[in-house]
C-alpha cells in the first residue's frame, strides 16, 4: 500500500526547509511570494467555477480576442 511521503516529514525537516527558504528569498520576498501564490489559487478556483461554458460565451471579454483573430 502506497502512503504519502509527506507523512514522514518531521519537525527538524520543516525547520530546515523554512531556514533554507529564508536564506534563498529573504524575509521581505516571502510575503510577496505567498501573496502571489494566493492570487494564483484564487484565480484558478474562479476559473474552475466558470467552467467550459465561459469559453464558448461570446460576451466573455477574454474570449473576444480569439473570436476577432479567427475572422
From TrEMBL:
Key words of the record: Cell membrane, Membrane, Protein transport, Translocation, Transmembrane, Transmembrane helix, Transport
Biological process terms in GO annotation: protein transport by the Tat complex
Pfam families listed in its UniProt record: TatA_B_E
TM annotation in the entry: 6-25
The keyword Protein transport belongs to this UniProt entry's keyword annotation: yes
Subcellular location: Cell membrane
GO molecular function, one term: protein transmembrane transporter activity
Top-level taxon of origin: Bacteria
Gene3D superfamilies attached to this UniProt entry: 1.20.5.3310
Coiled coil as UniProt keyword: no
Membrane topology label: Single-pass membrane protein
Subunit structure: Forms a complex with TatC.
Family, per entry: Belongs to the TatA/E family.
Function per UniProt: Part of the twin-arginine translocation (Tat) system that transports large folded proteins containing a characteristic twin-arginine motif in their signal peptide across membranes. TatA could form the protein-conducting channel of the Tat system.
Protein name, as recorded: Sec-independent protein translocase protein TatA
Native organism taxonomy: Bacteria, Pseudomonadati, Bacteroidota, Sphingobacteriia, Sphingobacteriales
Amino acid at each position: 500500500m502506497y502512503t504519502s511521503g509527506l507523512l514522514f516529514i518531521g519537525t527538524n525537516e520543516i525547520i530546515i526547509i523554512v531556514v533554507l527558504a529564508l536564506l534563498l528569498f529573504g524575509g521581505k520576498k516571502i510575503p510577496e511570494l505567498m501573496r502571489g501564490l494566493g492570487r494564483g489559487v484564487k484565480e484558478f478556483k474562479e476559473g474552475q467555477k466558470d467552467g467550459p461554458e465561459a469559453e464558448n460565451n461570446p460576451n466573455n471579454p477574454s474570449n473576444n480576442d480569439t473570436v476577432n483573430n479567427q475572422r
